[in-house]
Amino acid sequence: MTAHNASDLPRISDRLAKNALRNVSERIIEAILFAAAAVSVLTTIGIVYVLVSESIHFFAQVSIVDFLTDTQWTPLFDDAHFGIMVLVSGTLVSSFVALAVAIPMGTIIAIYLSEFANPKVREIAKPVLELLGGIPTIVFGYFALLIVTPVLQKIFPELPGFSLLSAGLVMGIMIVPYVASLSEDAMRAVPMSLREGAFAMGSTRLYTALHVVVPAAFSGLAASYILGISRAVGETMILAVAAGMQPNLTWNPMEPAATITSYIVQVALGDLPHGSIGYQTIFAAGLTLLLITLCFNILGQWLRRKFRENY
Amino acid sequence: KIDGSSTVYPITEAVAEEFQKAKKNAIKVTVGISGTGGGFKKFCRDETDLSNASRPITAKEMEDCKAAGVEYIEMPVAYDALTVVINPKNSFLKQATVDELKTLWEPAAQGKVMKWNQVNPAWPDAPVKLFGAGADSGTFEYFTEAIVGKAKSSRGDYTASEDDNVLVQGVSRDVNAIGYFGYAYYAENMARLKGLPIVNPKTGKAVEPSGANVENGSYVPLSRPIFVYVKVKSLQKPEVKEFVEFYMKSADKLVREVKYVPLPQSAYDFNLKHVKDMKKGTVFGGKNEVGITIEELMKREAKL
Amino acid sequence: MQPLTTEQIRAVIARGKAKDAIFQAVGILCLAIGLLVIFLLVGDMVIRGAARLNLDFFTQFASRRAAQAGILSAWVGSLLVMLVTACAAVPLGVAAGLYLEEYAKRNLVTEIIEINITNLAAVPSIVYGLLALGIFVYAFGFGQSILTAGLTLALLILPIVIVATREAIRAIPGMIREGSMAVGATRWQTCRYHIIPYAMPGILTGVIIGLARAIGETAPIITIGALTFIAFLPPLPFTETTEGSAGLFEWLMSPFTVMPIQIFNWTSRPDPAFEVNAAAAGFVLMAMVLTMNGLAIWLRYRMRKNIKW
Amino acid sequence: MQIHDKPALKAEARSFNFFYGEVQALKNINMPIYDKKVTALIGPSGCGKSTYLRSFNRMHDLYPGNRYEGEIRFHPDNTNLLSPEVDPIEVRMRVGMVFQKPNPFPKTIYENVAYGLRVRGERNKRVLDDKVEHALKGAAIWGEVKDRLQDLAPNLSGGQQQRLCIARALATDPELLLFDEPTSALDPIATGAIEELVHELKKRVTILIVTHNMQQAARVSDYTAYMYLGEMIEFGKTDEIFIKPQDKRTEDYITGRHG
Amino acid sequence: MQIHDKPALKAEARSFNFFYGEVQALKNINMPIYDKKVTALIGPSGCGKSTYLRSFNRMHDLYPGNRYEGEIRFHPDNTNLLSPEVDPIEVRMRVGMVFQKPNPFPKTIYENVAYGLRVRGERNKRVLDDKVEHALKGAAIWGEVKDRLQDLAPNLSGGQQQRLCIARALATDPELLLFDEPTSALDPIATGAIEELVHELKKRVTILIVTHNMQQAARVSDYTAYMYLGEMIEFGKTDEIFIKPQDKRTEDYITGRHG
Ligand SMILES: Nc1ncnc2c1ncn2[C@@H]1O[C@H](COP(=O)(O)OP(=O)(O)OP(=O)(O)O)[C@@H](O)[C@H]1O
Ligand SMILES: Nc1ncnc2c1ncn2[C@@H]1O[C@H](COP(=O)(O)OP(=O)(O)OP(=O)(O)O)[C@@H](O)[C@H]1O
Ligand SMILES: [Mg+2]
Ligand SMILES: [Mg+2]
Asked: Which of A68, B194, C44, E139 is most buried, by CB atoms within 10 Å?
């Protein structure tokens, strides 16, 4: 019972007491890390502040009802109309076209890479595909205008030189790698044991992929789709170049139209005096854009929560 | 430090390049493109030394400058001729009058005038495809003022772009297209486009868009002077002063090179004289005017 | 009901396999379309830009004469902006990721931060441009400088870095954490000696993917108003300039231009000769992105080799 | 009676070798599997039990670089399961498997059990309902889930999940059922339920079960095989193996002188 | 002699309860841990062995929502390890732990062992070298690794890794060593080496070991505690527990009537 002599005792007890210095430094580090995490919140606050504070001036002059219901968007003209739906329609139609390409194509590529292709193909194809995301979008814009549009005009002779269709298609191609790469990650996170279970039942690869892997990875897939949607809604240069910048309330992808983003760059590049109502419209438009992406995001969060990975 | 209109940018850029070369890169010049409005905003906030402008300063901007204590000298540097262009395969359009263009472009035409024969019965029953400058550009403002008679008053259902190459593409691909943009873009793409002669309202003669016609003042109303504004305070800096002098001396050659139409040399000399005499202010009094000639401008008395 | 006969089973299997084969073909086709577009675009840029792809192109400033114009200020600008972006985004992103994975308790604040990050990842880049214009350019008075552009793009890629960091941290088995804590390490010591080093390959991949995206961004930089003719380089630290000696960080406040802006500028020139320049510059930009991606793959491979559990 | 002593053969490994790439994991295995009996595979960790078990439904085909040598004959039709001409999918349709960790699909309970039938192209709702009920009853879980067939399977408890996985395997009437340590992730009560179930099932199907628990092997199996470092050391009736092992290594293992 | 029968106390659980959130995982545990002895914890899966073991070095503090009640007294200084005033980090510095699966850090062998010392702020190269060598010798692995101290630890074999983890724990001279099924992932030979090591180590430190292998408990421990559903059913000298368990449940478990 004398393994430790008496003089040891208080020392050991001391050691067990909380070490104040260490505690303080841990707290400080935690505070610093928290501050870093909070930067993202500040960014959001900053974005909302900048958009709202300028938009307030705008809405002081234009009623929200007009903003939402007017069917013309001519803020810079003598006879000014501020019907945001015109831009929203262009944004939604072009995004829809893009997603009609990107979601199926991205998902198919993801399934193929994660369930069919051998690992070498995957290791090479994925980064190469991601290069698509690295091409400056202005290059895509000219690709749409100079190559895709003429090809499409062969198929649809009545297609005008600028259209949401060709801009949307190219935008879709641009988004494919985002969707494919994120979906593939989500599918590969599905544990092998589930796949083995399915194969042990005698299912084929495709059946396993569609009936077991995809449902299991659904929340990840949803996340990738949501990101794809935000990319489409927020894409600027392709639309500015190839979609025609014509404020046109239309739901027909075969027509040219302006989108929220293309309007914003147009004004940002233009000769408009700051402080004028025309200039404030870009903040109102930006706010609308933010709200649209926010809606999709909330939808996405909800989907994710509903289909949280349950394996 | 220079900022402002994209229309004036090529000229100023050329000058800046030559100037730096001449000074062996000892002096740094930056040229930005924020648009005439954006340029003036910075100019009147005392952020830039020179401002490129494709239109005269407005009353509001004059006030801003005054509030910030910024004084300036206005210097016309070149003509910009707006060119109305059509597809080279277009066979029926030989010329157009201002009135015809007005019928086509005025706000009342929106959604109504969709066929060529609605403008002129002699023209065919074919759809009109319109291309034009973005609504926040000086080009747009000037075109509407010159043609429709009221600045910014235009129909909205046309393909607008800040990027004039996009317009070039659009017009060159569609037989029924008509569009307008700066002369330089037409000059570089003569193979793909046809410039539409415009009937001079005074003489009644159709005038082709060309350097010579602009210079001799017969291409009206679609030619306009473009400007550089220099801050009086900055002229005390030797490098700014030198730059302005260099600008005026080499303007004739460089303006030609970037496919704009130079002013007569006398106008440049006149500008330099203004600088020497510190003749501050604008001669426009805050309003834009159409079809004004450089000789008229030189006669006017500038006001702040 | 009878069990299926062997023939029936074989028929079912054959059908299933046929579907497999069809899908596989469709998959390859989709992949091929994607790759084809890349090759088309890159090939087109190479062919059209070939004439200008020589050393002069990299060492000359922009010029009004297409044949003399180079991308010196643009590529230097791009690299410097990326440097600022990386220096801002990496510590912030890694710290935020660490906090969320290793420190945060499940509560409302954490929840808000997390939802907020997913939302930010989806905010259109042009909106960041508007933010930067209001905050960095005017409120902070940074002007149209390298600093403004770098910080703007840093905010833009911050969500990417945070998400990559978190994924990488999550891949570290809990037993490593427990092993470290069990010998008496504090949380921060565990992070410093283990979590951060082991997560590094994943973090780097995320950072580089983020940078590759940032380097091609045009819209937010245009919104800041940085479309300029720049025929000089930012001052090197401690060199003599006309305004006196440059400090260590003088270059941060220098005006700049970047590759996508230069390309944008050239594509909107009236003179078609500039299109060649634009193509060549586009190719250079692609090559930069490619190099970055390659670097990411190589680094990941190199570092993974030393980390296994 | 002779017939009782040596029942019909269901399958048989003959000079079977298995390689993970360059590494030989199984060495010259010869072993019979008797029809409608439970055969237990025991042995220290890493000795190749799972590897052997998974050869019976060609699970190794899913990963590149694996190689079989020798034969596993399947009766009554005397097919060589390992032959390249034999379609692994067909093999898997005849041989069911239950894994160490329960792995229900992220679908409803009903869909989990119906999965194998759907894979076989069954569309008739009545037939499906019937078979699902039958399989769930066979796995002794019907009572617990009959009112919640549309609930998601991953919400069940571990033991229930494992029985669901057994039901899933049973639904397609396999001839041979493979169990890889089916109870190692379960609590004692769930374990008891599964053991009882195995006992029930052998009336209908042949069972091959891997376990690291010798008591379990003794309780549930008719035959036991002891493996060590990829080799089959000893095979025999369970009573005999446990009472009087022939090989020193088996004895050491059974009496617990090994890990 | 009395002193031999009842050796000094090293630690002692007193009315100890533990909760994972709302779920009570340990119920009113009272148990002594004797100095320089090996105490084995046995019991069916899920009974709370690991939970109990991990309370000794406050591992549960790492996760939110866990709650201790009662005391674990640590001797000779009679500190309550669970008291909120006691710094868990200090506790962990005095109580070492070895896990089920060897978890060496993906660093060099040297760095793995030196880690605990570095965490304590030791920078002196000589001291580090010394202590690392000493610890590796203590874990009976010095001979195998002395020429490759700069190799990456994960390249060692499983058994070596586990001994390295023991060396890592030993390097900081803990007073109590916790082992959570240290051999369950190892082959028989490695298992033997670890068991021998445990035997060696008890000359220097007190050991608390969880095992699911009763033979192992019988071989290595001086005292054995049987746990069931979060309760401590029986505690006593190993010989007595195995030969003549007092409780029916212990007997059932030892004779293998449970999972
Ligand atoms: N995918 C693989 N690639 C290479 N070697 C493998 C692979 N899977 C298993 N092995 C090796 O094959 C041998 C047999 O492994 P197996 O999983 O069959 O053992 P086991 O008897 O099932 O062990 P346990 O009781 O731990 O489940 C082991 O040495 C293992 O390391
Ligand atoms: N993090 C946790 N949260 C909630 N419950 C837990 C947690 N970890 C363990 N449990 C539960 O506490 C009980 C005791 O678990 P513990 O891991 O201590 O068992 P064990 O005796 O070590 O089992 P094994 O032999 O399988 O390791 C189990 O019912 C388990 O499900
Ligand atoms: Mg196994
Ligand atoms: Mg345990």
From this structure: E139
